[in-house]
Design a protein that fits this description.
The complex is a heterodimer of chains A (about 190) and B (about 200). Chain A is mainly alpha-helical and about 190 residues long. Chain A has five helices and three strands, in the order H-H-E-H-E-H-E-H. Chain A is about 30% helix and about 5% strand. In chain A, strand 1, helix 3 and strand 2 form a beta-alpha-beta unit. The chains are: A mainly alpha (about 190), B alpha+beta (about 200).
């Protein structure tokens, strides 16, 4: 069930958010490893190792988390140690999207378009409270979790996360890629 | 031409001996400042009872609405906290949390503090809802002396009072409407008026 084919509610005045903030509703995600072919598994292990060591993030930031993302790429924390120092200004050359900051409803189609323009395989880090679930901005203007418009691989809490928190999330993503775990389902293209 | 090359190379040679500024993070951790606020920890008393009495003040103070509590009455058979109630369910949504520290300021028993742990990222957002079992410190691990692991940034937050604080209410007396009055009596402070003062109603 995604945003596209939401069932028509009987009562139009029914509140959209029916759960509390502490239990934010989420897409069902089953992270399973479907590796059957022995030969290709060995090749894909090598490929995944290569991919995990050369994640190029897309160059964009939405709010104050972007400052910490810049700090993570600067010399003190130096994301170049993990092969991700090349922040590409074109989404065609990027394969990692760091959603750094709050996504307003007006910005959501833009974020989605940048995601669609990135070539496969691609991964998404949701950085900070606002991108992950809306944070303190529980209102009509902010998308309550960027995983409602794009599939998010790693959630990094913090407001904003320190560069170490981002690097920890980044290392988790690298580990996930090396293990060959599939990406979560796309919320805008619901599977039947 | 040669001059510029020498100039450039001298810069390189000077920088070669310097220590790099990079903190090689997963192996080496930077020391956090005293006011750093990371993951929450629920504390215990020395005798093992939980400090949290289920008063909901932290949940009320939370600007992000990230704390969810269900309180339950203590009974004689099962005493969890020294107060009337204890928190049966204590969930903190780390994704909502903005690590502002209002919960530890609101807490009357010092049960919840924000500690130095910051490695929190996860593949699944439901893993980032921390339950009471994950937040509560183990018996025997609680705050002993000045163990920095469990004190939190509470002490760093509270400014220590000066040894000889100046009086905040003005003490001077003067003439007001032709009569001698204390500064408090004419509205410059909230002291009880001096009974010997002529201005009284």
């Amino acid at each position: 069930m995604g945003l596209i084919d939401e069932p028509l509610r009987m009562n139009p005045w029914e509140p959209v958010q029916i759960t509390t903030n502490t239990q934010t509703p989420r897409m069902p995600r089953n992270v399973e490893n479907h590796s059957a072919n022995i030969l290709l598994t060995q090749v894909s292990k090598l490929v995944d190792w290569g991919r995990s060591q050369s994640l190029w993030p897309a160059l964009f930031g939405l709010a104050c988390c972007a400052i910490e993302m810049m700090a993570a790429s600067a010399s003190r924390f130096d994301i170049a140690r993990f092969g991700a120092e090349v922040f590409r200004a074109s989404p065609r050359q990027a394969d990692l999207m760091i959603v750094a900051g709050r996504v307003s409803v007006k910005m959501a189609p833009v974020v989605r378009q940048i995601y669609d323009q990135m070539p496969d395989p691609k991964w998404v880090i949701s950085m900070g409270a606002c991108a992950s679930c809306g944070g303190v901005f529980n209102n009509y203007a902010i998308v309550q979790g960027v995983d409602k418009i794009i599939p998010v691989d790693i959630f990094v809490p913090g407001c904003p996360p320190t560069p170490e928190m981002l690097l920890y999330g980044f290392n988790q993503l690298q580990e996930k890629i090396r293990q060959g775990l599939p990406n979560p389902p796309d919320p805008m293209r619901p599977t039947a | 031409m040669a001059n510029e090359i020498i100039k450039g190379l001298s810069r390189t040679l000077r920088e070669m001996g310097r220590k790099p500024t990079t903190v090689s993070y997963p192996e080496q951790h930077r020391s956090q400042p005293a006011r750093y606020r990371g993951r929450h920890v629920l504390h215990r008393y020395e005798n093992g009872l939980e400090r949290c009495v289920g008063c909901f003040l932290c949940a009320g103070a939370c600007p992000a609405d990230a704390i969810y509590i269900e309180a339950e009455e203590n009974s004689e058979a099962q005493r969890v906290s020294p107060g009337e109630r204890f928190a049966r369910v204590f969930d903190v949504n780390m994704l909502r949390c903005i690590f502002c520290g209002y919960c530890q300021q609101a807490c009357p028993t010092g049960a919840i503090t924000l500690e130095k742990e910051y490695e929190l990222a996860s593949l699944r957002p439901e893993d980032l809802i921390y339950h009471k079992e994950q937040l509560l410190e183990a018996v025997g691990e609680q705050h002993h002396g000045d163990n920095p692991a469990t004190i939190g940034s509470n002490t760093a937050w509270q400014p220590q009072p000066p040894a000889d604080p100046p009086l905040t209410i003005p003490q001077q007396r003067g003439t007001f409407d032709g009569q001698a009055a204390s500064a408090a009596a004419v509205g410059q402070g909230n002291l009880i008026p001096d009974p010997s003062s002529p201005i009284q109603d």
